[in-house]
Amino acid sequence: MSGKIFIALFSGINVGGNRIVRMAELRSFFEGLGFSDVSTYVQSGNAVFRADKGDAAALTKQIEAAFEEKWGFHSRIMVRDFEWFERLVRENPYPEAAADHTKLHAYALEREPTADEVARLAEKCTGPERFEVKGDVLYLSAPDGLGKSVFASLIPRTLKVPGTARNWRSVVALLEMARKSGSD
Fold this sequence. Notes:
Shape: globular
Structural class: alpha+beta
Distance between the termini: 8 Å
Strand content: 15-25%
Order of helices and strands: EHEEHEHEHEEHEH
Largest sheet: 4 strands, antiparallel
Number of strands: 8
CATH topology of the largest domain: Alpha-Beta Plaits
CATH superfamily of the largest domain: SP0830-like domains
CATH architecture of the largest domain: 2-Layer Sandwich
Strand order of the largest sheet: 2-3-1-4
């Protein structure tokens, strides 16, 4: 089978009853753009798909523009390839936290943060959370869970690098889905 497997992570859809996009509609939308082997995971907007041409950056632009045209609002979308996801899981600096998916999160960032941006974020991290940035991924270990983490709510406006977070269960599930699509 030709083409390459990608994963698209949407941000700001189906959160708190706003900007509702049904996953069946999202699958049709991807198929309508000419992608194949499309599958979605949970309601927050995750799609695994196969594209015959284009890289992650080009696909991001294409999908964001088409999405806004169809649904009438902008959703920031991070498109990453299978190898990126494999590396994300392999390089997890907090393997001991991976067992409880509510306590480990990965943020796909639009770009690699600068040393200054990371340092500014580190100043705000007074515990119990820990974080590590590897390339364009921020790993967050939040022992009390993301919902109770004051630090987690500071990440977007302190780091100032757009990104979207997924809990570890979603990360692992998406990698599995991509692996299955790739082996067909």
